[in-house]
Write a structure and sequence with these properties.
The protein is an alpha/beta fold and 273 residues long. It contains 6 helices and 12 strands. Strands 3-2-1-4-9-6-10 form a 7-stranded mixed beta sheet, sandwiched between helices.
Length: 273
Amino acid sequence: MLPNLRHLASPTVAAVLLCSGRQIMVERAVRCYRAQTYEPRSLLVFDNGNPQITLAWQADEIHVDGRAFAGGSIGALRNAANTLCSGVDILAHFDSDDWSHPLRLAEQVAFLQSSGKRCVGYRRALFRDTRPTPPEAWEYTAMAELAGYSIDASRCYWREFWQCRPMVDATFADFAWWAKSPEAFAAETPSELRMVCGIHGDNMSGAYRPDTMSKPEWRRAPEFDLLCASAHGGMIPSYASTQVSGARPDRQVREGFRSAPSRSAQAGEACSD
């Protein structure tokens, strides 16, 4: 069976950043990574753009030229990038067009361990659509009947789980991956803002975009227009009193990790439930 890693002390996390150009967005995402409070962590930048992103990378940041990779779907890209993250316990999506709160990785690692699930993420987040002028804020909340389903950009999961169940090479890889084993997923609704995801160009399928849907998952949120602009502008405000609509203040910040068996003792276990 899959190894039980929920009591692993201080698991190592790789934040996986996919990008194709968009230097300014990548710079913002890297700043978000560097502001994260969780340790130990590293950053993998999988860059299939031309020209490549140029930054003064720090010791825990790896920039990979992904232009030779032939895959095109988001599932194929995530699989290719994840393959390069050897020697870590946890993988976290950290896309170039999203803003993440400094506590995001610390809280998600704690939730991953306390939940006993294989993958965790957020049911609700804000999205900033930069196509209109001025840009618009939208609030997305996953449907309640999709138990455990979370926003793809927010997912954080055990690497062993991904190795046993790689993502589907498809445009809707996020939904297909969840649908293969929904019991392995857990999603939470943060009472305070933890992510602002970006909508721009062709980065989202038309079936997902709020302006092409009339479904309850999406809500136009003009009260968050300025907040989203601040986050995407690199100005990280205080969220002490900022709650997304409908969120219940029942989210517990989980701190600390329990003592763990040695990782070597868990080696060699087969991929099955």
